[in-house]
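Ligand-bound model needed. zinc ion.
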Amino acid sequence: MQAGPKQLFSEELRGRFGEANRVLVLTGAGVSAESGVPTFRGGGNAAVWKGIPFEVISSAGMLERDLPAVWEWFNYRRGLLEALKPNPAHEAIARWQDRFSDFTLVTQNIDGLHQAAAAREVIELHGSIWRARCVHCAAHHNLRELRIDNGVPACFDCGSSMRPDVVLFGEMLPAGAFERAAAKAAVCELCFVVGTSAVVYPAAAIPEIARAAGAYVVEVNPERTPLSELCNEVLTGSAGEILPLLG
Ligand code: BV8
Ligand code: ZN
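Prediction:
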C-alpha cells in the first residue's frame, strides 16, 4: 500500500529514532544518485565504460594488465564528480552525527560527498577517488591538489607508479576498516542501509551483522534488494526525500 509522507515510517521506527544512542548508517551509490552520480546497478542498468563492464575495469586483474586504462577510467569519473554537490540525504546523515551519542557512518562510496556535507568521521570501505597511492611505498597523494589527466603518475617519494587509492574487485579492504564497521554494527541499536544494492561483500555483511545482533534494520531504497527480507522496515523511495523527513 502506498503511504503518504506522514505514514511512511512506522510508530516503532519513530520511537526508536527518538530514543536510540548507537546508530549506524551504511551507504552505497544510491545516496549520491540525487547529486548526479551514476549508480552501478539498479534501474536495470549495468555500468559499462568503453565496452568494459565496471566489475572488470574496476578489478585487481585490470590493474595488473592495464594500469593506464584504470587511471583513464578513474580520471573520467573524478572529472564527473568535480562539479557535484552533496544532496539532502548526505546533509541529513551529517546532522545525525550530532543527534546520536554513538553514530557511525560507513560508506561504500569513493566520491567524498559525505565529507563534503560535513560528515566528520566516515569509514570508507572502498577507499577514495580523491587519493592516489604508491604501488611500492606508503606514499599517498591528494588528487584534489594534484591534477592527473593523462598517463600513470609517478610517486614523488620513490618514483614508482601510483594507483587510485580505491578497493578494486578481488582486493582486500583497507586494514581495519571492515573490522571497525563490523564492531559498531554488532552493538548498534538502529541500522540504516541507504542506497545500496547490497550485493558487494564484505560491505553487505554489515547490516547482516547488525540484524543478527538484534538491531532494528531499516532499508531506504526505491528498489528491493537481497537485504530487504532481512530488514525490520523497508522505506521505498529516494534517500534525498526520505532521510530529511526522519530528522
Ligand atoms: C574482497 C570501488 C577479499 C571501485 C567497488 C561472495 C561472497 C563474498 C565476496 C564475494 C563473493 N563473490 C565475489 C566476491 C568478491 C567481491 C564481491 O562482492 N563481488 C560481488 C559483486 C559478488 N568483493 C570483493 O572483491 C571485495 N574484496 O572480497 O576481498 C578477498 C580478496 C581477494 C581474494 C580473496 C578474498 C572488494 C569489493 C570492492 C569493490 N569496489 N568500488 C569503483 O568504484 O570502481 S564496488 C562498487 O560496488 C561501488 O563502488 C560500490 O562501492 C559497490 C556497491 O555498489 P552499491 O553502492 O550498492 O551501488 P549499486 O549501483 O550496486 O546500487 C545502487 C542502489 O541505489 C540500487 O539498489 C538502487 O536501487 C539504489 N538507488 C538509486 N537511486 C537511489 C537509490 N537509493 C536511494 N535513493 C536514491 N535516490
Ligand atoms: Zn612510492
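The CA atoms of residues 182 and 206 lie 6 Å apart.
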